[in-house]
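Researcher: Please predict.
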Amino acid sequence: MFQRLFGRERHANRAITEALYAQIVASARQTVFYSDWNVPDTPLGRFEMLSLHMFLLQHRLRGESGAAGEVAQVLIDEFFLDVEHSLRELGIGDVGVPKRMKKLAKMFYGRTAAYDDALERNDHDALAAALARNVRPDAGAWPQAAQLASYVVEAGRHLAEQPAESIVSGTVTFPVAKSG
């Protein structure tokens, strides 16, 4: 089945990957995160939100068999290609990119482990603390971390309701973050 989705039909597969990744990016760029919840609208702040949304979709696809697992890997590859491209756009040269990519990959996987652990234990406070530590390490107390944690829990439920077949075909939605 995967060969049909991602092997020979490259154009259709590229369209699926692009559609899924575009939805992840759009969800990560919701204005409320930056304007109301004080996520820094900086390259690092945007990386944090993109990482969070990538984690959410990876979390949803974990344990799925067949094409869903392959889609999850293709999306991770797309994510890291996008991060590398962004570094180059920021003016990081060929010599500095690998070192920064290694650091960003370590950051991504460390965050996903912390978020996954908190979600698995259904520990809202631990999730909020992990988000605060990662998204706003400079802020000390960050009251909006609880709002972001609630969004993450809601997004996890929202994604769980979406059939894997729908996601594999290129359709995924995230909830709209609401201020207040």
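Model: The radius of gyration is 16 Å.
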